[in-house]
Design goal:
Layout (H helix, E strand, L loop, with lengths): L10 H9 L5 E5 L5 H4 L4 E4 L5 H11 L10 E4 L10 H13 L7 E4 L1 H9 L3 E4 L9 E4 L4
Parallel strand pairs: 1-5, 2-5, 3-4
Antiparallel strand pairs: 1-6, 3-6
């Protein structure tokens, strides 16, 4: 164990976060996300038993968001016609506001298949047991 490091961040996950450079991207994926098939060129780290909010809080404690882009955080937009509730979006925005002075305006949305395209280019995909729909979060790393 280390002081000041959230216990949820496993040694493997810490290693992968440390390897990331400025502008590299990571996905925090909900339980329905096709992480293994999309992440063929990414490192996939499983955090079973944990939700998106808990993982996001921990990651944002050790990784800054990119200050050189307007929206270093992207959520998967709803498929047109899907009326699924998305309270997780407010949770993500609240967590981002805690660490980025620009507030929730740094959070954008990507159409589902565009999100998949971007996720396929990510350096790291963190899987979760999140049951909320549309709870996938794409983060772009900033400068430490």
């Amino acid at each position: 164990m280390l002081k000041g490091i959230p216990a949820i961040l496993s040694p493997d996950l810490l290693k992968r976060l440390c390897e990331m450079g400025h502008s590299d991207r990571l996905v925090i994926a909900d339980g329905n996300f096709p992480a293994e098939s999309l992440g063929k060129n990414a490192h996939v780290v499983r955090l079973d038993g944990h939700g998106v909010q808990e993982i996001l809080q921990a990651v944002l404690q050790v990784m800054p968001l990119d200050q050189y882009v307007e929206q270093p955080v992207s959520l998967m937009a709803k498929v047109p016609g899907d009326n699924a509730p998305t309270p997780i979006w407010d949770v993500v925005k609240a967590e981002v506001k805690k660490v980025d002075e620009r507030g929730e305006k740094v959070v954008g949305f990507l159409e589902r298949f565009k999100f998949y395209e971007e996720a396929a280019q990510a350096y790291l995909i963190i899987t979760s047991s999140e049951k909320a729909l549309y709870a996938n979060v794409l983060l772009q790393k900033g400068v430490v």
